[in-house]
Amino acid sequence: MKQTAIQTFVSRFLILILNFGLVIFTTNYWGSSGKGIISIVIADLAIVGFVGNIFVGSSVTYFASKLKTEQILPYAYLWAVLSGFSVPFLIGFAHQQEFLSYLIILSVLTSLLSANINLFVGRRNIKNFNIYTILQQGLQILFILGLVYLFNETEVQTYFVGQILCLILLVAVSTYQILKHCDFSAVSFSKDIITKLFDYGYKTQLSSFLQFLNYRLSFYFIEFFKGLSSVGIYSIGVALSEAIWTVSRSLSLVLYSDVVNTSDQNAAIVKTKISLKISTLATLIFILILFAIPAQIYVLIFGKDFGQSKEVIFLLSPGILAIAASNILGNYFAGMNKLRILNVKSIVGVLFTIAGSWYLIPKWGIAGACIVTTVSYCVSSAILFWKFYQITDFDIRDFLLSKGEISLLLKSLQRRK
What we know:
The protein is mostly helical and 417 residues long. It has helices spanning 2-56, 58-63, 69-94, 100-122, 126-149, 158-179, 191-226, 228-243, 246-259, 265-292, 295-302, 309-335, 340-364, 366-388, 403-416.
């Protein structure tokens, strides 16, 4: 687990650097309004993804070790196309979506790629997962820069065209890589299998969607009350704060893959507590680093429109730390197929987000959105901690690395050099 976690962290860190470069480019090239448009479209894409992920997400990962690939992928691919075409139209009714055609294409391609890389995770092929996630970010940047500087495409939709070209390439390569090992004569459709996939998928995605609303619902409230430029400014602070989750998400991914492939609950709890320690302490260190950066540096990097970025980071930081820890616990419960608690904590968070956003964002703007988000994060995380420590004894050492664990971690890092 240690080497896989380190490999995943390195890949996530590289993705973070690439994403950081892309954010700098988009904010300086298209400004706060352009960044606001991109943020809303990407948020809409994430909503479509939650519907698609009922069959292409964690259900693929969970059943990859329990069913044949030929029994899983037909449902995943069909649902990717169906949801990718239909859900964007529903979003278009909910709020004006100027880039609907791009959203549809992105939705289908993203779901198809998700099916493939989640199959890799379920087969414990974390290496391929890491490669494709890095390429997804890196190739997107290359295509966008090529369109801008080689073909003089300067409109904001260039961002989405570059993303589409990247996804077409990765879907084609990953699909070939998977299908060349499949026996097409074994492809079959079973009511029992589709029921299993749907039952697990909708439960995990309901929780994930509700948690997403905790993360992004404030974007839509800000757009409604304050406009797209405010969304762009807020999104930079959010992106920087959430970048800190690199360690947490890396550990969560590896932990989830391990838990779904084990029947030893005690071993799963031990791995969860070790991941919890590393995630909490690493996140705290990164938060302090962001605090140490002067506000003028954020303006220098992102442009004159983004002077509030440090204030956003400061107000979000308690919630960012809470989620970094609860991400670990959430993946433990998902891996153990204990999904009810994930839905409960997400529902509580969403209800608070809706009520708080409606009151505070019109009054305090971006600062109000930060306060609502932070409290929502902390409240929903507290529910997961309460549930986890009902099945195991609480110990403050669960958040402190021992000398032995630090030594093992350093030795693992040295072996990777």
